[in-house]
Design brief:
Elements: E1 3-7, H1 11-22, E2 28-32, H2 36-49, E3 58-61, E4 72-75, H3 89-108, E5 113-116, H4 121-132, E6 139-141, H5 145-159, E7 166-172, E8 178-187, E9 190-191, H6 203-221, H7 226-242, E10 245-253, E11 258-267, E12 270-274, H8 281-302
Parallel strand pairs: 1-2, 1-4, 2-3, 4-5, 5-6
Antiparallel strand pairs: 7-8, 8-9, 10-11, 11-12
């Protein structure tokens, strides 16, 4: 039996719950949010939707004890609009949420895989792992998965090809020190310093175009959800045993003694083996810078959300 839990029913949590039910990706779905009325409303809406389906998902509300035998727990709390007011606001708010839910999740006896969507992703993922006292392999974050997808799409558009023809990864820190690892990027097996489909690609412009996708989405909608949910479903499928998936997610990387977005294989056990590419020296240095920034955010969380002057 497939069982998934979601804590936090904002834009991403609600869309994810909808897609899990409509696509029959789970047999039981545990939904938890601070807002009881919101949770009840979502459950009612999803149950109404199931009258048009040939499948049935059991929906459980506001019950931490039901997390005991959940395969994957997805944390999607947060409020991205806070970033317009104060850079550290979402860090502090989501740190408070971690401290609120962690004792309840631990008390349930949960021992599955945690997939964190909340931002700042790498730091909150690291803090979740510490507060839940789970093995690092079982606690991962979506990290720079979407940044990687945007980078590949930017390359593909410039080369006038499908993004399926592009490989490569963005490392580092989502919504922070992103590292566009051009050394890992190929198009149909060709490096970017070669002529690609008759085009000479400008790496600076490729990065600008990838970042613009994020800007347009946030400016127009005020949040990002569709791409996050689509990739979350892909990650869920890999973890539930449909095969291995290579993706740049927030993992504990022993090489850097901390959490950072890094390409890895995901499988039934959660984090598999990191993918080790020969990065350019400047890229290695940039990843180290990102690790330092993540550690600073984690230190703030460990201090209870107090920012030292």
């Amino acid at each position: 039996m497939r069982k998934i839990g979601i804590i936090g029913l904002g834009h991403v949590g609600r869309l994810l719950a909808h897609d899990l039910v409509i696509a029959n990706k789970t047999d039981q779905l545990v939904l938890i949010d601070r807002d009881d009325a919101l949770a009840v409303g979502l459950k009612t809406d999803l149950e109404n939707a199931q009258t048009a389906l040939n499948t049935r998902t059991k929906i459980i509300l506001q019950d931490y004890a039901a997390l005991r035998n959940v395969d994957i727990l997805i944390t999607t709390f947060g409020n991205s609009s806070l970033l317009k007011k104060e850079q550290m606001a979402e860090l502090i708010r989501n740190g408070e949420a971690v401290r609120e839910i962690a004792p309840l999740v631990k008390q349930s006896g949960f021992d599955g895989i945690v997939l964190n969507i909340s931002d700042p992703n790498e730091a909150i993922t690291a803090y979740l792992q510490q507060q839940l006292a789970l093995p690092t392999e079982q606690v991962i974050g979506i990290g720079t998965t979407i940044d990687t997808a945007r980078m590949r799409q930017s390359v593909a558009k410039a080369a006038e090809l499908s993004s399926q023809n592009v490989s490569g990864f963005v490392y580092g820190q989502h919504n922070g020190d992103k590292v566009f690892a051009w050394s890992t990027v190929t198009v149909n097996g060709q490096k970017l310093d070669e002529s690609i489909n008759g085009h000479h690609l400008d790496q600076n412009q490729l990065r600008i175009n990838a970042d613009l996708d994020n800007w347009y989405t946030f400016k127009g909608l005020g949040y990002s959800a569709s791409a996050i949910v689509a990739w979350t479903l892909k990650i869920i499928s890999a973890i539930l045993g449909d095969g291995e998936l290579s993706v740049s997610v927030a993992i504990y990387q022993p090489q850097y003694s901390g959490y950072v977005s890094f390409p890895t294989l995901l499988n039934r056990n959660g984090q598999g083996h990191p993918l080790l590419f020969n990065l350019y020296p400047v890229e290695v240095a940039a990843v180290k810078t990102a690790v330092g920034a993540i550690q600073q955010q984690l230190t703030v969380l460990q201090q209870g959300g107090k920012i030292n002057d």
